[in-house]
Amino acid sequence: MSINTGSIIKKKICLLGDEGVGKTSLSNRFGNDSFSEEYKSTLGVKLFNKNIEYNGSSVNFIVWDLRGGLEFYKQNKYYYNGEFAHIVMGDITNPDSISNIPLYYGESRENYLSSKVFLSISKIDLPEYDLFEEDLSKVESSCSFEETFKTSSKTGQGVNEMFNRLAQLVIGE
């Protein structure tokens, strides 16, 4: 979905991934520049939005934080309509979430070939970060992500860079 209201371009972004991978934390870091250790499962969808100024253009990202888990990922496709991009997330400390990334990638590609698909590997601030690099490499080679970002919602590492890259794609650079 692209809505140009004057000089602001609006784009919808959907976050996909297993429950507990950090979708809501990523949204909070991006939207509010905040982080909470408290975990609450998303029921349905949460919406966040934020404007980014990029090279003289204003992009408003409407981030759809979709309920995680394999039992819901097929239902989530009803939320995808009009999206500019999907961000598929995996938790570097959770090997199951890494091995499930191709399922979410496949779902995003099944009916939405024109959208961009990014991979966000979360929680890279945690000591377990290096444990699953080999698994991650296998997943990346099996999917054709636009780009991969290693992120930490706790420290903010990689979060703004990912959304700035999305803004760059929105304005056509």
Report on the structure:
The N terminus is likely disordered. The chain has a single domain, classed as Rossmann fold (3-Layer(aba) Sandwich), CATH 3.40.50.300. The chain has 173 residues and is of the alpha/beta class. Strands 1, 2, 3, 4, 5, 6 and 7 form a 7-stranded mixed beta sheet that branches. The longest helix has 12 residues.
List keywords for this structure.
173 residues, alpha/beta, Rossmann fold, 7-stranded mixed sheet, 7 strands, 30% strand, disordered N terminus
Strand and helix map with partners:
Elements: E1 2-5, E2 8-17, H1 23-32, E3 45-54, E4 57-66, E5 85-91, H2 95-99, H3 101-111, E6 116-122, H4 133-142, E7 147-150, H5 159-170
Parallel strand pairs: 2-4, 2-5, 5-6, 6-7
Antiparallel strand pairs: 1-2, 3-4
CATH class: Alpha Beta
**Full CATH superfamily name:** P-loop containing nucleotide triphosphate hydrolases
Q: What string gives the helices and strands in order?
A: EEHEEEHHEHEH
Q: Could you give the distance between the termini? A: 18 Å
Return residue spans where pLDDT drops below 50 for at least 5 consecutive residues. 1-5
Classify the fold: give the CATH topology.
Answer: Rossmann fold
- What's the overall average pLDDT, rounded? 83
The 3D shape can be described as: globular
Strand content: 25-35%
Helix content: 25-40%
